[in-house]
Specification:
It contains 2 helices and 5 strands. The chain is α+β, with helices and mostly antiparallel strands. Strands 1, 2, 3, 4 and 5 form a 5-stranded antiparallel β-sheet that branches. Strand 1 and strand 2 form a beta hairpin.
Length: 84
């Protein structure tokens, strides 16, 4: 099975979170949004989701991208979030 490898970049801390895998960008976005929803004290627009490449679980190999690809989440990037 082939999956994709993702990370979340924290623009304030200027570092990436640990890697995680998902089958599609949509699944990765869902995981990303769920993690943002758990902590109401953070500002979601401070974080960017990146795809780093792929992982083949049958061949036990990683296929990297020449340059990480930012996964666009337009709804999140356009909405000002208020923490209540």
């Amino acid at each position: 099975m082939k999956t994709k490898i993702y990370t979340v970049y924290d623009r304030v801390a200027e570092e990436c979170a640990p890697l995680f895998c998902a089958r599609t960008d949509g699944s990765a976005i869902r995981i990303f949004l769920a993690s943002m929803d758990r902590d109401k004290s953070i500002t979601p627009t401070d974080f960017w989701l990146y795809c780093l490449g792929g992982f083949d679980t049958e061949q036990i190999s990683i296929m990297g991208l020449e340059k990480a690809r930012r996964v666009m989440i337009s709804e999140l990037e356009q909405v000002e979030v208020t923490n209540e």
